[in-house]
Automatic annotation (TrEMBL):
Keywords: Methyltransferase, Transferase. Gene3D superfamilies: S-adenosyl-L-methionine-dependent methyltransferases, Vaccinia Virus protein VP39. The keyword Lipoprotein does not apply. One of its GO terms (molecular function) is methyltransferase activity. It comes from Chloroflexus aggregans (strain MD-66 / DSM 9485). InterPro entries: Methyltransf_25, SAM-dependent_MTases_sf. This is Methyltransferase type 11. Transmembrane segments: none annotated. It comes from the Bacteria. GO terms for biological process: methylation. It holds the Pfam family Methyltransf_25. Residues 49-143 form the Methyltransferase domain.
Length: 271
């Protein structure tokens, strides 16, 4: 199958059917993460939120169920079809948009942008920086972005449970093989799905995720006109401090008016 169709198929498998297979765990994880988001961002119920790289929309749906106005954006049309169906089934109003995080069409529309589950880093450094510039433009002055990503300094701890192994999804099994290239600070992940009952044996095109340490990440945020406010060691309550043992880093930054003007001046100069 063509690469984009293959990626969409895999996104549907991993973002929809995997969470459906492990429904109880997924629902509890989502509840805990949304509780954290509300607390860490000081959400009051009136904010408009962009859930960037929303996948199957689990955060979008949970936030909408609690009263927030949410837009979920993802590149995989098949995954968003499931998200829209779930919203309709639950009677929720969520705008799910097919789009590319590298080319966000929004200007000062959102109070909050979420980029969860290590969704920053799928491109080269210049493009990842451009993604942050797009997020800054999408935020209203005073708006906040929350980015959850892996801490490269603790990648070995993360890979202890994630490096390699088979696990079931539906009537088949997924083989995951992950490794970290320290020369490029990049997490590389391959998948293979086998369902003997349906004669399926499919290999994933492969993911490469650039991991940024906290100094790199905060420098990139500042370059985009986003002022770092706080960092946590996990998306969980009670709040977990970011320490030398943290597998995750969850960074919150804001776009204020002074920084916004500087970022826009730099952006225009770069064009």
């Amino acid at each position: 199958m063509a690469e984009q169709a293959s990626r969409d198929w895999w996104e549907e498998l991993l973002q929809v059917y995997e969470f459906a297979h492990y429904r109880q765990y997924a629902d509890e994880l989502t509840r805990r993460e949304v509780d954290f988001l509300i607390d860490a961002l000081g959400l009051r119920g009136v904010e408009t939120i962009l859930d960037l790289a929303c996948g199957g929309g689990r955060h979008s749906l949970a936030l909408a169920a609690r009263g927030w106005t949410v837009v979920g954006l993802d590149a995989a049309a098949s995954v968003l079809a499931h998200a829209r169906a779930a919203a309709a089934e639950q009677g929720l109003r969520v705008e799910f948009v097919i789009g590319d995080m590298r080319d966000l069409p929004y200007h000062e529309r959102f109070d909050v942008v979420l980029l969860m589950n290590s969704s920053l880093g799928f491109f080269d450094d210049a493009t990842n920086q451009a993604v942050l510039h797009g997020i800054a433009r999408a935020l209203v002055p005073g708006g906040k972005v929350l980015i959850q990503c892996l801490n490269p300094y603790q990648i070995e701890r993360y890979l202890r449970d994630f490096r390699s192994g088979w696990y079931p999804i539906g009537s088949g099994f997924v083989l995951r093989e992950a490794r970290f290239d320290p020369r490029r600070a990049t997490l590389e992940i391959d998948y293979r799905y086998i369902d003997a009952s349906r004669g399926i044996d499919v290999t994933h095109p492969g993911d490469q995720i650039r991991l940024y340490g906290f100094p790199e990440l905060t420098a990139m945020l500042r370059a985009a006109g986003l002022r770092p406010l706080s960092v946590f060691g996990d998306a969980a309550l009670p709040p977990v401090p970011f320490t030398e043992e943290s597998v995750w880093q969850v960074v919150i930054a804001t776009r204020d008016r002074t920084v916004r003007m500087e970022a826009e001046d730099a952006d225009h100069a770069h064009r």
